[in-house]
Amino acid sequence: MEVLALILAGGRGSRLDILSENRVKPSVPFAGKYRIIDFTLSNCSNSGIYNIAILTQYLPFSLNDHIGSGKPWDLDRRDSKVTLLQPHSDWYNGTADACRKNLHYIEQSQSKYTLILSGDHIYKMDYRKMIEAHIASNATLTVAAKVVDISEAHRFGILEADDENKVVRFVEKPKKPISNLASMGIYVFNTDVLLEKLRTMDIPDLDFGQHIIPSMIGKDAVYAYKFYDYWKDVGTYDSYLQANLELIETVDKIPLDMYDKNWKIYTKSEELPAVKVGSKATIHQALLSNGAIVAGTVERSVLSPGVIIHPHAKVVNSVLLNNVEVLPGAVVENCIIDKNTIVGENALVGFGDDLTANIENPSLLSSGITVLGKKIKVPKGMKIGRNCRIFTTAKLSEMKNNEVKSGSTLK
User: Fold this and answer.
1) Number of C-beta neighbours around residue 325 at 10 A
2) 368-392 confidence digits (pLDDT tens)
3) What is 270-410's CATH number?
4) What is the SS3 assignment for 46-97?
5) DSSP code string of 117-140
């Protein structure tokens, strides 16, 4: 198939707050050894799509370093290529504007079809089936869609389709959703139609959901491709922690099979030794990545590469990113902790029953999760409550009574 894949990977990921402070959302670590964008790249590779451009913008360095030549995804072959496209002058002002600012690249690809993808969702999908459905229906645009909980529908582009899956209505992030069939942000365009829209729609902040798709309803052949398998937008702390912890369920309950030999998720792996488990360690339901050392207790948690849990330390219901160290006697519960942070001896992080929502930004943290940034040193014996946001620049050593109360934000 003559297909060009454009992966939109330039979003700030503002709702991931601390985790996206120094990296774009697609570059955020996930499921231990992976990055979020690994799922989209692996889907492309497994679908036999090797002509890929990644549109980056904010803080692209971590993402650029991770992707490199694309070798882990088999994208460094003679018949394949992965290109990273960054803004030349003006920044991207919308999903479609990002494509418009790379109009010449799309033209030069001479592809018959253009596959638009988001780089910040967790799912496994054979794009060939969607493209085949697009061709079979003589569509000019096909939108991948999934049924979501109606309470979450306002976060997505919502569409209505007839019995033949032809889209009859599309509303971007409606306050009162017309249905719960949500756009997944995955589109197949006939390339000539996409180019015509990008050239002629004179809107500065041109967006697929806000502008291009609604303009095509009733005029062009726009169809829905319904997707029934696992797909999750991990754009909030709650969804990020939940999606990670869903992967540690028993085999019959895991919503996303990461062990499928026929559809592997590829990544750039660090050269680290095997996991080491101490003689007095206790582990219940956990993902342990290469280089991790567990001498204490780990329950319902995900440990990224190089994490160390010392004797008599305990980690529960948490996600610890690369090289986090939990010293003896410390307890970490309901936490997301970014790279290279050290939790001091006998410290309690995610402590207590006080569920006061984060005072500065209650919409980000209200369910009890506490989040710590990179390279933080939690002092010995410190108590940090629930719904706390501790940024990298926070000076924990200056806290009165060696305590951070629930709902606090420290910058």
Assistant:
1) 20
2) 999 999 999 999 999 999 999 999 9
3) 2.160.10.10
4) HCCCCEEEEECCCCCHHHHHHHCCCHHHCCCCCCCEEEEECCCCCCCCCHHH
5) EESSEEE---HHHHHHHHHHTT-S
